[in-house]
């Protein structure tokens, strides 16, 4: 399958569909929704981890890479899913978490017993002379990234939760194990892989970071390209059909030029996150800040144009399981909910790269309705609540920040219908269902031709039908415009123009192209006012215009 023409759909198994009434989604639930997914038109399903795990980080803490967590089903269930998906032309993409394991993984348990072979699978270091952790690095989930083990008088490194010890990629035996895991799943018929925080596996030096939390010491490290090339050569690279995406936390674009350039033989494409900080205060996530639209636009276009100049490929997304819902963040939850959900889809799906839709995004699902700390499940959110209140913030102010920025916003159960628990489960869901399910749900949207769901179907089809979408060059339009996100895609004489009003107010947009030669391919409003190079945009309006090559001269 051509990755440029493909669209990936991300599934968070825990919240997708529960067939057993346990309140937790399962693999059979995914199989039962294959018709829905085929109808939407997606080509790959990225399944977040379903391996045996104590679930401290919802499966991103893997205890056994070769077995399926019984709460999600069995290996037979997985094989059935793979088979039935393939029949519908859908490939499975698995999520491989190799920066760390669970602390319950047999390797770590042996390490803690003092087995020197397995101790070298992880990163144990002596504390500083005079006491304290080996370096000042901070865990991504808050607090020190080092945990003290009294038996050894040493610390182990965990860039994420304490129960997620980092693997030592300098050890060739670790890399060989990782490659073995990938080959195992390839043999099961898997068609792609997503590698979790893969750009953090090569650490630079175990030294203090003078002005920060350690990020430069373990991001895009000195041996990262070598490690990725080896992983490619020893595992997925043996099958040219397999597509891969690396999750690149806090990465530098220069590194991504190489990660995602086909000639480098590292990965097919990369996720970067700089554009997702548009509502942070600088690097600070746990504060309330307005959306910086101009900053967002600048970052998006700089990745678009520079990655293209280097022949490298982007993964495109606005929603995923770690991000609050985009319609709540950048759009509107009330008056213009539908229009803004469609506009945001238009904005990113027609850029240069492979789009990733996160479950429920195609319905315009919104942030969770969380009122108290006990409504939250996410380790990062709960840790940061405590950090904020220890710093002196009132619990209600801390909760307000969580309501905006918690990853749980994306993890509420999928809204299938207006039945009890949104049709997600017969039992009590592991996380609170969003009460707006009576209005926003798949059943209702399937019946409504004007729904966000049907609009997403059309967007996906544009990528299949128009080569200019999959292969065209990209050029920002009106970079300085403070209201509109617009760009042109072009292939030879063929041209596609996408104009998105980012705000809930009317706005007249003027560009440099004569639009009278264009036809409208898609829009979230039935009527349009376009004259020469000007478009009278309604709140959150998105218009996709197309001009064929021949008509040009
Ligand atoms: O996320 C890595 C990551 O750094 C972020 O997306 C993170 O969730 C966010 O920055 C916190 O502010 C990946 C997975 O996608 C995430 O679900 C896991 O929790 C994490 O790795 C650890 O495996």
UniProtKB/TrEMBL annotation:
It comes from the Bacteria. One of its GO terms (biological process) is oligosaccharide catabolic process. Residues 10-411 form the Glycosyl hydrolase family 13 catalytic domain. InterPro entries: GH, GH13_cat_dom, Glyco_hydro_b, O16G_dom_2, SusG-like_C. CDD domains: AmyAc_SI_OligoGlu_DGase. Keywords: Glycosidase, Hydrolase. One of its GO terms (molecular function) is alpha-amylase activity. Belongs to the glycosyl hydrolase 13 family. This is Alpha,alpha-phosphotrehalase. It comes from Candidatus Enterocloster faecavium.
């Amino acid at each position: 399958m051509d990755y440029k023409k493909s669209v990936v759909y991300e599934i968070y198994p825990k919240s997708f569909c529960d067939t057993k009434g346990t309140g937790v989604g399962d693999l059979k639930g995914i199989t039962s929704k294959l018709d829905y997914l085929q109808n939407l038109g997606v080509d790959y399903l990225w399944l977040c981890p379903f391996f045996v795990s104590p679930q401290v980080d919802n499966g991103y803490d893997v205890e056994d890479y070769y077995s399926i967590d019984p709460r999600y089903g069995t290996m037979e269930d997985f094989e059935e899913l793979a088979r039935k998906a393939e029949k519908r032309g859908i490939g499975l993409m698995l999520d491989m978490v190799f920066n760390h394991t669970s602390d319950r993984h047999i390797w770590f348990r042996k390490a803690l017993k003092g087995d020197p072979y397995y101790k070298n699978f992880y990163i144990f270091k002596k504390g500083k002379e005079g006491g304290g952790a080996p370096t000042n690095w901070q865990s991504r989930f808050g607090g020190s990234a080092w945990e003290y083990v009294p038996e050894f008088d040493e610390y182990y490194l965990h860039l994420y939760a304490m129960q997620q010890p980092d693997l030592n990629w300098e050890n060739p035996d670790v890399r060989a194990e990782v490659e073995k895991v990938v080959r195992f799943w390839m043999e099961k018929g898997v068609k792609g892989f997503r590698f979790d925080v893969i750009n953090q596996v090569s650490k630079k030096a175990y030294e203090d970071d003078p002005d920060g939390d350690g990020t430069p010491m373990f991001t895009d490290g000195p041996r990262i390209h070598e490690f990725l090339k080896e992983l490619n050569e020893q595992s997925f690279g043996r099958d040219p059909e397999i597509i891969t995406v690396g999750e690149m936390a806090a990465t530098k674009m220069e590194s991504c030029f190489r990660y995602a350039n086909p000639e480098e033989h590292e990965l097919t494409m990369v996720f970067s996150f700089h554009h997702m900080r548009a509502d942070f205060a600088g690097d600070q996530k746990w504060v309330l800040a307005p959306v910086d639209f101009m900053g967002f636009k600048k970052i998006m276009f700089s990745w678009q144009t520079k990655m293209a100049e280097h022949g490298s490929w982007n993964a495109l997304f606005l929603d995923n399981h770690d991000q609050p819902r985009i319609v709540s963040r950048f759009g509107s939850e009330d008056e213009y909910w539908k229009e803004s959900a469609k506009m945001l889809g238009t904005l990113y799906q027609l850029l240069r790269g492979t789009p990733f839709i996160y479950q429920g995004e195609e319905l315009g699902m919104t942030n969770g309705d969380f009122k108290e700390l006990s409504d939250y499940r996410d380790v990062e959110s709960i840790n940061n609540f405590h950090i904020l209140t220890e710093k002196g913030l009132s619990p209600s102010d801390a909760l307000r920040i969580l309501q905006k920025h918690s990853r749980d916003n994306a993890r509420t159960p999928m809204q299938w219908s207006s039945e009890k628990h949104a049709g997600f489960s017969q039992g009590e869901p592991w996380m609170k269902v969003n009460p707006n399910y009576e209005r926003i749900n798949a059943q209702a949207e399937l019946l409504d031709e004007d729904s966000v769901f049907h609009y997403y179907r059309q967007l996906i089809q544009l990528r299949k039908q128009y080569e200019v979408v999959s292969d065209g060059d990209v050029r920002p339009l009106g970079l300085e415009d403070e209201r509109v996100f617009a760009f042109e895609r072009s292939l030879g004489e063929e041209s596609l123009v996408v104009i998105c009003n980012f705000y809930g107010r009317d706005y007249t947009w003027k560009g440099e192209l004569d639009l009278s030669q264009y036809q409208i391919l898609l829009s979230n409003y039935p009527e349009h006012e376009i004259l020469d190079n000007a478009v009278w945009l309604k709140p959150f309006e998105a218009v996709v215009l197309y001009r064929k090559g021949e008509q040009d001269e």
